[in-house]
Amino acid sequence: SLLSEEAVLAFEYGYATTLPKSLIIWEAQFGDFANCAQVVIDQFIASGETKWERVCGLTMLLPHGYEGQGPEHSSARLERFLQLCAEDNMQVITPTTPAQIFHALRRQSIRPIRKPLIVMSPKSLLRHKLATSTLDELAYGTFQTVIDEIDTVNKEEVTRLILCGGKVYYDLLEKRRELGLNHIAIVRVEQLYPYPVDVLNAVIATYPNIKDLVWTQEEPQNQGAWLFIAPRLYKEILPLGKSIQIHFAGRDASAAPACGSPYLHAKQQAQLVHRALDIQVDETGDRH
User: Fold this and answer.
1) Which residue of 39, 120, 232, 275 sits 20 to 30 Å from the alpha carbon of 83, by its own alpha carbon?
2) CATH 3.40.50.12470 spans which residues of the chain?
């Protein structure tokens, strides 16, 4: 298509509203390029149904993930979409497996309602050795808004529960397995909006002895899902009357989405994984 994100996305929005029984997908080369179509997102995709009762089932595939490619090729500005979420106006997901993406697109095509679907889809998961699905998961599975711990852990012994979304999950999983940290469980929130409050609460309730609940993301603290999910976690956890501490693990707040240095990127990524897993390291990088 023409290299004019605003024009092309506006065309796809109109096409999707005109043909509601079709699966219309607009994919950005990098999620950051949606910046150039922000007016279409704000004035049509997010609010068109509320303003004009005009439903739209447009799907946006936005490559999003911190892979060391710099500030203009790392972030689809997840925080902007979450800020626009209200009145069940759209769906925002961060799928981590092929089956999840397949079932999300299938659901979008066959369900009897039409809502925009925003997919944060990291490019590196196309080739990640752990990002796989079985044929049974594809043939007989469904889209899961929340995915519980996949390794065999004794939930009674888990004292630290990590919540996350997107490709950072695999960094956490590999490091947790490497160090044998069996007191830590990792839960994926695959759908951020509509917020799966009942499903997530049910999963958290299966871990009766957690002391720390950690939201982990690759994005800086002022970006990503943290400012969206933090008040929801406090709202649900505090009334339980348990001494559970809620923590953030991610990059420090930043004016830019990402740094431009591969070395600094790798250092920041390691630091946020260590923070999430509560691994103490010295300046040489040795664990102690």
Assistant:
1) 275
2) 5-140
What kind of architecture, by CATH, is found in domain 147-277? 3-Layer(aba) Sandwich (3.40)
Residue 43: how many CB atoms within 10 A of its CB? 13
CA 98 to chain centre: 15
The arrangement of secondary structure in 5-140, i.e. its CATH architecture, is 3-Layer(aba) Sandwich (3.40)
Q: Could you list the mean pLDDT of each consecutive 10-residue stretch along the chain, which spans 288 residues?
A: 81 94 91 89 96 95 88 91 97 97 96 95 88 95 97 95 96 96 97 97 95 96 96 90 92 92 92 95 59
Partners of 61 in the beta sheet?
27, 119
Under 8 Å CB-to-CB from 91, ≥6 apart: which residues? 108, 115, 116, 117, 118, 191, 193, 194
Query: Which of 81, 76, 190 shows the shortest CA–CA distance to 143?
Result: 190
